[in-house]
């Protein structure tokens, strides 16, 4: 754990990436605590019908029982095994059991349609998937399910399940031993599997602790509405909490809504939350306030001043942004306990991470350039699964390219946009994030997505797609008002020359606007709203 300090400079000296020869995430997240404090609460399950606490000792029994079932099914070290479950103790136990036998867990999402599951299961060659009855119906015959008649994966209440209590001996693994194959969202092409070793969790901890202002304080309890099938739910919340001895709330939301969110926070005595940006916008649009939180973190895209200001008023805390991606996560963060957040910035490098902004030749620059992370970082992937050429293309010398554009603002990293999202208009390079943030400040706007649209004169023009709040009339007059709003608050050259109104924006399952789809739409448009 990070030691609480008074300055960011003191924080940066606390981490290096020297790992022990033996390292297994099953021990970090379960076995070590189960040995030391078996009655310590690990997971708080909240369903519409009940609230249930699962201790580390009980979690280990569950994982050990599953590990034996996996071996009985012929699974072994190096095999890829899918996990198709929602937030619950069985989901955590499934990953832990897979790591115990030296296999590789492959998180899968229940909202995927069959084709999306088929791509991931097929690419990973995952012949076995730990799931439940709901997941089995979704998956069909794509892989062999471990479900239904097996006592360790029933849908029965935890207290009624009988476990083998003999301790399972976890296989020996090291920091570089493959442990997790987690797929990118595929917003810029076919999804790729990022393969991570057992050092992945240790690599996440500094950024998680930093963004939650030294997570692990008395009374801390962590939750996120993000599904545990995603790196943001699994390795920014669930596994770090278990490793730090912080209770993690498991509560599946069929659909995000403010009232259910408030109820979960109250029932779980939640003090720390990771809210994806879309969740924050929905809370803001609903007029929701939440009290009693100690920290709120958010990541996935830049929030901007409007959401940050709202967070202080409605949530009672400063929202700490963090930054990373599936290939190398939690590399930068804000920490309200140490420094004020800067609107449009994604914080400062997390301890242990060396971040640079590179110019076209690959040299660090103080100008706008490519955001990159130096090799050797704890949370950096081993490589893309079966894609050596794409793995090689991800690096430039000693630096892993994130695909994002950024610029230093002092020692803060300012996010400009995805490399393929930055708009080049009449010689200006325009980041879409600040325009989206500016549009969100208008009282009529619920959410917005901004892309570049080809233009014969300017190369590209700024095109905005806007979803208005309930009861607002979306017409040419509003479009002109929004253009004036951006001109007034940003710059004349960056205002959206075209605005279209939509009922909803295309989103990834993690809540990011899919600008690729908006850009494709803009490419085919012949007429616009104004």
Automatic annotation (TrEMBL):
Residue ranges of every copy of the AMP-binding enzyme C-terminal domain listed in the record: 434-512
**Which keywords describe this protein according to UniProt?**
ATP-binding, Ligase, Nucleotide-binding
Provenance organism: Litorivita pollutaquae
SUPFAM superfamilies on file: Acetyl-CoA synthetase-like
Source taxon at top rank: Bacteria
| Residue ranges annotated for the AMP-dependent synthetase/ligase domain, each copy included | 31-385
Q: Which family does it belong to?
A: Belongs to the ATP-dependent AMP-binding enzyme family.
Q: Which GO terms describe its molecular function?
A: ATP binding; CoA-ligase activity; fatty acid ligase activity; fatty-acyl-CoA synthase activity
List the protein's name. Answer: AMP-dependent synthetase
């Amino acid at each position: 754990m990070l030691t609480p300090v008074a300055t960011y400079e003191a924080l940066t000296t606390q981490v290096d990436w020297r790992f022990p020869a033996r390292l297994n995430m099953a021990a970090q997240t379960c076995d070590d605590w189960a040995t030391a404090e078996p009655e310590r609460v690990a997971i708080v399950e909240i369903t519409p019908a009940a609230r249930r606490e699962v201790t580390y000792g009980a979690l280990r029994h569950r994982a050990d029982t599953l590990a034996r079932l996996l071996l009985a099914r012929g699974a072994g070290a190096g095999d890829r095994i899918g996990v198709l479950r929602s937030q619950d103790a069985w989901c955590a136990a499934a990953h832990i059991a897979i790591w115990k036998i030296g296999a590789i867990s492959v998180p899968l999402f229940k909202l995927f349609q069959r084709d999306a599951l088929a791509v991931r299961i097929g690419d990973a060659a995952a012949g076995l998937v730990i799931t439940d009855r709901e997941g089995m119906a979704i998956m069909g015959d794509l892989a062999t399910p471990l479900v239904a008649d097996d006592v360790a994966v029933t849908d029965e209440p935890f207290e009624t399940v009988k476990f083998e209590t003999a301790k399972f001996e976890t296989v020996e693994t090291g920091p570089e031993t493959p442990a997790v194959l987690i797929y990118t969202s595929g917003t810029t092409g076919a999804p790729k599997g990022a393969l991570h070793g057992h050092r992945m969790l240790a690599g996440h901890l500094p950024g998680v602790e930093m963004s939650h202002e030294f997570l692990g304080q008395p009374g801390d309890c962590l939750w996120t509405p993000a599904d545990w099938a995603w790196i943001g739910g699994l390795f920014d919340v669930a596994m770090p909490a278990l490793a730090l001895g912080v209770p993690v709330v498991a509560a599946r939301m069929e659909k995000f809504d403010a009232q259910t969110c408030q109820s979960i926070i109250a029932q779980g005595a939640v003090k720390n939350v990771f809210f994806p940006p879309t969740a924050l916008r929905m809370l803001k649009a609903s007029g929701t306030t939440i009290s009693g939180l100690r920290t709120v973190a958010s990541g996935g895209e830049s929030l901007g001043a409007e959401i940050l200001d709202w967070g202080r008023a409605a949530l009672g805390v400063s929202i700490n942004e963090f930054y990373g991606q599936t290939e190398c996560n939690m590399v930068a963060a804000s920490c309200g306990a140490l420094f004020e957040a800067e609107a449009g910035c994604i914080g400062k490098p997390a301890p242990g991470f060396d971040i640079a902004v590179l110019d076209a030749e690959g040299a660090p620059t103080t100008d706008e350039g490519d955001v990159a992370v130096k090799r050797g970082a704890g949370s950096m992937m081993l490589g893309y699964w079966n894609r050596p050429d794409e793995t090689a293309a991800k690096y430039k010398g000693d630096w892993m390219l994130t695909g994002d554009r950024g610029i230093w603002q002092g020692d803060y990293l300012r996010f400009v946009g995805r490399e393929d999202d930055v708009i080049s208009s009449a010689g200006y390079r325009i980041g879409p994030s600040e325009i989206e943030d500016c549009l969100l400040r208008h009282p009529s706007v619920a959410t917005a997505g901004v892309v570049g649209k080809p233009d014969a004169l300017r190369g590209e023009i700024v095109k905005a797609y806007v979803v208005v709040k309930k009861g607002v009339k979306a017409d040419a007059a509003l479009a002109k008002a929004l253009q004036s709003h951006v001109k007034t608050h940003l710059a004349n050259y960056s205002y959206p020359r075209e605005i279209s109104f939509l009922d909803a924006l295309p989103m990834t399952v993690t809540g990011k606007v899919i600008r690729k789809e908006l850009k494709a739409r803009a490419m085919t448009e012949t007429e616009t709203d104004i």
